[in-house]
Amino acid sequence: MKQTQTKRLLEALQKGYDVTQVTFDTPAWLRKIKRIKDGYRDLSIANVPARVFDLKKEGYCIETINVPIKGKYGKTYYSVYRLAK
User: Fold this and answer.
1) Could you tell me the pTM of the whole model?
2) What angle (nearest 5°) sits at the alpha carbon of residue 21, between those of residues 46 and 76?
3) Alpha carbon separation from 64 to 3, 32, 72, 83, 84 (Å, rounded)
4) In whole angstroms, how far apart are CA 84 and each of 16, 17, 42, 71, 72?
């Protein structure tokens, strides 16, 4: 049976992974965290924020951490998602 993107995301979050949609080089401080998954590369989820929204609609409490990075046009942010405890 084929597993949905939402199910794959939920399983990763329940196993204690932080999930991000970042598909570029991860900052050094984030690489030190061993329990992080790239939603696109590791879980084959094209739109992680949409799947997080689906899980929140189902009643799951998911934290969003905004991480500042230097973007092409200055400071920008990307999100890291984790299951709230």
Assistant:
1) 0.81
2) 130
3) 24, 19, 23, 9, 9
4) 10, 11, 21, 28, 32
Q: Are 67 and 6 in contact (CB under 8 A)?
A: no
Query: E strands along 12-55, which residues?
Result: 18-20, 36-38
H or E segment to which residue 80 belongs: strand 74-83
Question: Rounded to whole angstroms, how far apart are CA atoms 37 and 14?
Answer: 12
How do residues 17-75 score in pLDDT, each as one tens digit?
989 887 556 666 665 666 788 888 889 998 999 999 999 999 999 999 988 888 788 88
Residue 37: strand, helix, or coil: strand
By the 10 Å C-beta count (0-12 exposed, 13-18 middle, 19+ buried), 85 is classed as exposed
Amino acid identity of residue 75, one-letter, is K
